[in-house]
Amino acid sequence: MHEPNPIDIAAKASGEPLFREVGVGPWEQAHPGEPRPDDPRFDPDLLDEGDRRNVLDRYRYWTVEAIKADLDTRGRHPFEVAVENWTHDFNIGSMVRTANAFTANRVHIVGPHKWNRKGALMTELYQHVVNHPSIQDLVDDWHTRIAAERADAERRIAELELAPGDRLEQARHELHMAQHAKIIALDIVPGAVPIETYDFPERCLMLFGAEGPGLSQKAIDLADDVVYISQFGSVRSINAGAAAAVSMHAWISQHA
Questions:
Q1: Could you tell me the end-to-end alpha-carbon distance of the chain, in angstroms, rounded to an integer?
Q2: pLDDT tens for each residue of 193-220
Q3: pTM check: above 0.85
Q4: DSSP H or E stretch at residue 207
Q5: How far is it, in rounded angstroms, from Cα 245 to Cα 93?
Q6: DSSP code at position 126
Q7: Could you read off the pLDDT of 70-115 as tens digits, one per residue?
Q8: What contacts 46, CB < 8 A, 6 or more positions away?
Q9: CB under 8 Å to 134, separation ≥6 — which residues?
């Protein structure tokens, strides 16, 4: 039998960690003397049992449906992310969770419908997740939706030009986004440009591949731009979930 590692012994004797409490207890305990709310956004079971979910405090006791609807009402960011699921990569769950944290407009799963949800920690419930059988289907769907957005913006501009105001400026901005929308492949391949110098378009679809093989050649061929994250160690690529998080935050730092 091996002797315990001194670090393990010291760690157990340290009295750490003391974690902060996450969430709130039952309504009667957390709000003594206050009337029970009758807001339809609140979940009766959560009011009874407490809410320890990993959500912002403003959403405590809210139902999943109410949270998702509020995120839609407050406005999701106009970037979208897609990941190829040919290898059932466990990183997909992490990507979905990050997409929720940055309020991506949509998450697209390309390939088999089933994907590893463990890393998502239930955040897929608050996110718009769309499945596609192939990368071609994803790209066709993207181009169809962008064309529709462009046509809708042009129609509204024509209607509003006689009454200039905020609505007209918003329509012009949405037309500009649709006109400059791009599909961006994230992978380390010849011809890719560094993310540190890349100007992300406001309306874009980011493509991510599986851990190891990266993106399929077809995904790279169908992309408008190919971008890579600069690395300086010996490994060929960073974790796919980490790459997605870096890329989404790069968009956030430029547009949010």
A1: 56
A2: 999 999 999 999 999 997 777 899 999 9
A3: yes
A4: strand 204-208
A5: 12
A6: G
A7: 999 999 999 999 999 988 777 899 999 999 999 999 999 999 988 8
A8: 60, 61, 62, 63
A9: 110, 111
